[in-house]
Each structure stands twice: as structure tokens, then as C-alpha cells.
């Protein structure tokens, strides 16, 4: 109350002093501008200046607060920036989809600073760079995306795995894919990249384990998965046979599906491995069954190479096929080999001669030469060995080789 009284008193005193000053001498102010003049007292002029300064102060204060709190102008500026960022991003995505990867990379990079989610721009720019083989630049974009904090860790990791796979960094790609698969086991693109990575690594066991997921989530058609299963099994069987892993070879065959077990190519691969491991007695019944299901020269040749448990029965079987199917070079060759194991030299000689009449194969010359040597006909044996070598040379000289030599 006391302060209010003092303030009122001071105001009255100041007003009285100003009134006395104005009454004593009002002063004179003249402002001229072109043809216009303004005449007033000094005190009115001072009041006008004070009012003008106050208005300017209030205007500046209003503008400052409006900018800080999101005025129309700031919203317009922000909207323009966002709109410009979206337009550039759309151009970059369109260029990427059109296969213009260089332009896509540049535009997406430029738009990233104005984009709502710059990580998206950087990830797509990384993919565009990788498509051009610029893997180091792609990695730089991925690092930028990683630092943008846009919650795109999954997309970044997936792109990094793809870039590693393109570069041939197979183990690095596998590490990334295995990590993100723990969070998205059913993601179709992860499964595709894992398939490609296992194939490139020749990791046939893990590829076989992945096949049910590819089939379940329809990453590939049923026919494509079945074909991949057969080819993968063949690769694994061939690899185990080459390394003489007898137990692993048998276990792999025990684990195959019924579809694979009845595929002629898979049977050929498995029985070839058995023959190489001196297990022809196991291979012979499998080959016999498969030949009745799916006749092929490859299976016939393997049947002749398989040292079955009952050579006489094996010879009876192949002679039955000769009567039913008619002779072919491969069938006569296999019949000759089985006849040799039965020590029927005359019959073996006849079959080898019939085979050579139909086709002069190097292996037939070798078998016939071996038989003649066994019979003590060394001169003729040497002749057939020589003819076999010539047949090998003729086989190795392809038309392209002949052109280059000429």
C-alpha cells in the first residue's frame, strides 16, 4: 500500500513538472520532406518519437516470439523444406527403379539433408552405389545411415549383407544375416540372401537345412525348391565321396527325402561315390531299381562299373536289358565289364567289339585292351590302348580349340 502511494505521488509530480515545462515554453519542431511539412511542438514531437520506438520494439518482440513458437512464416519455410526434400527423394527413387543408379545416388544424397528420414535416402544411395560396383562408397552411405538414428537398423544390416555378398565377402555377409535372422526368421529377403550365401560358400549341409524354410514361406516355387534340393544333395554327395567320407556319404543318403532318393541324378551321384569307395555291392541294387524306373546311359555305365555281390545275376540282368532295349555302345560296354567279372572272356570280347562298332569310346578301348592283355595278346592289347589314347585326344580337341590351333 505504501509503495502504491509513493508511485502515484511520483507520477503526479512528474506530470506537474511536464505541465509546467510545456506551459513555460512548448518549443517548435518543423519537419520538411519534399513538398510536405509537419509543424508541432517539441513535446508532441518527443511523444511521437517515443510512441514510434515503442511500436518498433513491440513489432520486433512479436516477430521473435512468432519465429520461436512456429508462426505462419516458420511453418511455411518448414513445409517448403519438407516438400523439397520429398520431391528430391521421389526423383531419386524413380531414378533407382529406372536403373539410373548414378543419378539416383546423387539425388538421394542431396535430398537426405532435407528428408524426414535421411537414413532411407542413405540406404537407397548405398544400394545404388553397390549396383555400380562402388562398394566403398556404399559402405560410407551405410555408416551415415547408421548415425542418423532413424530406427532403420534392420534395413541397414540387410543392405550391408547384400553389399558384402556382392563383394564376395561371404563370411561377413553370413555373420550379418545370421544376426538379423534372430529378429526376423521369416523375412523372405533374408532367406534369399542366406540361400545365395550358402551356395557361394558351398555350404551344402546348411543349405539343405534352409530348404524347408524356403518351401514353407514360399520363397521359391515347390518345383524350384525340389530342384535345388536335388542339386544340393548331389554336390554334398560328390564332395563326401571325393573326401572318402564313407560314413558321411551313407548318412546323407539316409536323410534324403523320397523325392531325392528316386531322382536319377541323385542316385547316380550316390552310387558313383559307393563305387569309388569299393562299395559296389551296395550300389548295384540301387542302380538296378533306378534303371527300371528311369533308363539312362549314365546309370547303365555305372551298373557295369558296380562290382555287385552276385556277378552272375548282374550279367543275367544286363543281358535281359540287351534283349528288351536293343544294343547301345554303353549297354554293350557295361555287359562286357560284367562278363569279365564273371570270367567269361569270349562273351566279354564280343560285347566290347559290339560296343566299338557303335561308338569308339576311349574307355571301351581301355577295357578291351585290358582283356586282350589278360588273354596274352599283348600286341593287339597295345594296339587298342593306343587307339584309346587317340580317341581321348580326338575328344579333347573341340571345334574352338581346332580354330585357335589353325
Tell me about this structure.
With 406 residues, this protein is mainly α. Among the domains are: 202-309, no CATH class; 322-400, Tetratricopeptide repeat domain (Serine Threonine Protein Phosphatase 5, Tetratricopeptide repeat). Helices cover 79% and strands 2% of the residues. It contains 22 helices and 2 strands. A hairpin with a 2-residue loop joins strand 1 and strand 2 (36-40). Helix 5 (118-131) runs antiparallel to helix 6, helix 15 (280-293) packs antiparallel against helix 16 (297-305) and helix 18 runs antiparallel to helix 19.
Short description:
This protein has 406 residues and is mainly alpha-helical.
Helices and strands in order:
Blueprint lengths: L1 H23 L4 E5 L2 E5 L1 H28 L2 H26 L3 H12 L5 H14 L3 H13 L5 H15 L2 H12 L6 H14 L2 H13 L5 H21 L3 H10 L2 H4 L2 H13 L3 H14 L3 H9 L5 H15 L3 H13 L3 H14 L3 H13 L3 H19 L2 H7 L1
Antiparallel strand pairs: 1-2
Helix pairs in contact: 3-4, 4-5, 5-6, 5-7, 6-7, 7-8, 7-9, 8-9, 9-10, 10-11, 11-12, 11-14, 14-15, 14-16, 15-16, 16-18, 17-18, 18-19, 19-20, 20-21
